[in-house]
Amino acid sequence: MADAIVFNGGARGNWKVLRQGAIKGAGLGNVAFVDRGTKGDAGASWTLSGVTSNLRYTNASEKKVLDATPSVLARPGATRAALIPITKSAAWWAMAQDERRAVLEDKSRHIAIGSDYLSAVSRQLVHCRDQVGAPFDFLTWFEFKPEDEARFDELLVKLRATPEWGFIDREVELRLEKAA
Amino acid sequence: MADAIVFNGGARGNWKVLRQGAIKGAGLGNVAFVDRGTKGDAGASWTLSGVTSNLRYTNASEKKVLDATPSVLARPGATRAALIPITKSAAWWAMAQDERRAVLEDKSRHIAIGSDYLSAVSRQLVHCRDQVGAPFDFLTWFEFKPEDEARFDELLVKLRATPEWGFIDREVELRLEKAA
């Protein structure tokens, strides 16, 4: 049983938008705030929602590394965030499990790269591909301290240079600051 | 983007219930018919829905076997069906990907066993674990000719005897006949 995680983009919310833009494919309407919660808001410009779910690619030894540095949201001082909704291509989803794993980790080192940033960047992967009519496959969410934003930028540069990113069809990025 | 597959249990539908029962955990209210379609029916006794999705465990060589015998629904003469909603345990979902694959295939031969029945039994795996509030993880659907029902029974006996089935928390079975 999954709990909903909902992002309402609009005129109010618990995160202020510093900047937003389309990295690949269509963007999202510009908004001043994003409200991160558990319910839709009929007054929002757009609403994106999904659920946390089980690990899809991580193996047992990689899971040990992740479990040793749990990704805790709302850490003191972590007043910056990024919401990056992404959609992968039909070619990605048509691959067998071992073929996707080979691109994601053997060729792209996605889990290994991410592991280097666990202490600076808290992450949450929100799944929406299996929701009827969802416009994105994943809503990726990151929180960090303002002084760690350069490290987060570095993480994005590394990931976007991987073979895995060749399977990204749509990507939108919003940088956020915790609303007072 | 996923399309919904919806099962409405009630007084009408395109499949007549021959028998139904709980295999493990709570059952579903008894109904005379199941309607398999794409939309909920407010008049139904219960409604279960989900989506088809990408392969989760199948590797490239196993996928070749599956692709060589595509599972086609509504085949001529396939007038019997089974709807078996299942939920796996928290222990299952807490495992890493390689640990789940080890139980599913290395120890339980789930994919290999299923492959032996591809010609007799058409299958569709409907995912609902990542839908908010869904009571089951999967709605498994099978179609076969009346003369192949004994083979389908055999398939169920084999799968239910596997280590993987130790991770099933809830399982309900409905046997169906195509409504005239």
> Which protein chains make the most extensive interface, counting residues with beta carbons within 8 Å of the other chain's beta carbons?
A-B, 33 and 34 residues
Q: Which strand order spans the largest sheet of chain A, edge to edge or round the barrel?
A: 4-1-3-2-8-5-7-6
Mean pLDDT rating of chain A: 96
Can you identify the CATH class of chain A? Alpha Beta
At CATH level 2, the architecture of chain A is 2-Layer Sandwich
Beta strand count of chain A: 8
What quaternary form is this?
homodimer
**CATH third-tier fold name of chain A:** Alpha-Beta Plaits
Could you estimate the helical fraction of the residues of chain A in percent? 10-25%
Tally the helices of chain A: 5
Using only C-alpha atoms, the radius of gyration of chain A works out to: 16 Å
Number of domains of chain A: 1
Range of strand content of chain A: 25-35%
Helix and strand sequence of chain A: EEEEHEHHHEEHE
Low-pLDDT stretches of chain A: none
The class by helix and strand makeup of chain A works out as alpha+beta
- Based on Cα principal axes, name the global outline of chain A: globular
Largest sheet of chain A: 8 strands, antiparallel
Termini Cα gap of chain A:
33 Å
